[in-house]
Amino acid sequence: MLKLFRLKLCLFALFHLFTVFVASASAAKSANEIDMYIRDDLFVDFQAFVAGRDVHEIKSFSGYRMRRDVVDMVLALQALKLGGFDKGFNYQIGKVTLRNTNILERGKQLLSFDTYWYADAEKISEYAYISEPVFRKGEYLAGVFAHPENRKVFNINSLEDFTKFTSISTPRWHADWETLKSLKLKKLYQDDEWLQQIRAVDKKWADFVLLPFMPAVNNHYKLHSLELLAVPGIALTFNDSRHFVVSKNHPDGQDAYLALQKGLAILSEQKRIKSAYIEAGFIPEKGSVKVLNSELINKD
């Protein structure tokens, strides 16, 4: 009986030690991981592109499911690592677009993997660090996307042609909104929800929307039943630069920002930032598209 009691006591002690070890390991892992809120569609395409590879070793940016914010995310992760930021991320997946800025301001989100226009980043500079640009003024090009059956849009070949057409965007995206306003459109509709903008163009309630080029799918955008196609041979650019933003109110904000800046400098010195966007097709080869509004860009 005494032997049985001693055995149970030993087993209890071992179980207790194991529980403490697991709890300690879990706490250590938790302390070294940061919750990152990320849009579900971006996470799906990011995983499809990475396809099990070490994200820090990726140097080729062509291929399946490639999109501009996937390039942003890969470059941000690589820059953080190169800059010495050694914490991992615990991804929280959901529809976070409209509250992304809010959670950054409150310190609930460390940084945005999706780069910001400088004009939009500057509005939250009290709460956020702004990185060096990954796109400078005039480098970022967007396609004019319309429903494939809205054939009149596909005849656009000059700035003057835009006066016959309508578009849709939101003032929340300062650079997009100001660019569209400069085109002297027939009508510029406002909708703050990105999916609703796409739907409006698909239904031909608005003639076109500005989207990044998507060479991996021949600039043919499809989402469920929605379908848009880029007008071939033309592009618009923006009088603004694009940057990562890092929360000043997050406990790891300053460390992440300093590491990001250091890593971006290394990537830039290695000419890997611009080459990534060129290879992914978001900076088309010189001469491959006609930039209709290039004279509107203030490069001072």
Structure, described:
The protein has 300 residues and is of the alpha/beta class. The protein contains 9 helices and 14 strands. The protein has helices spanning 2-31, 40-50, 68-82, 100-105, 118-123, 174-181, 194-202, 253-269, 272-280; strands at residues 33-39, 88-94, 116-117, 128-130, 141-146, 166-169, 187-190, 209-212, 220-223, 226-230, 234-237, 242-243, 245-247, 290-291. Strands 5, 8, 9, 10, 11 and 14 form a 6-stranded mixed sheet that branches. A two-stranded parallel sheet has the order 1-2. α6 links the parallel β6 (166-169) and β7. The longest helix has 30 residues, at 2-31. It is globular. Residues 17-29 have low confidence and may be disordered.
Total of helices: 9
Radius of gyration, whole Å: 24 Å
Helix content class: 25-40%
Poorly predicted ranges: 17-29
Helices and strands, in order, run as: HEHHEHEHEEEHEHEEEEEEHHE
What's the count of strands? 14
The biggest sheet, with number of strands, parallel, antiparallel or mixed sense and barrel status, is: 6 strands, mixed
Distance between the termini: 89 Å
Strand content: 15-25%
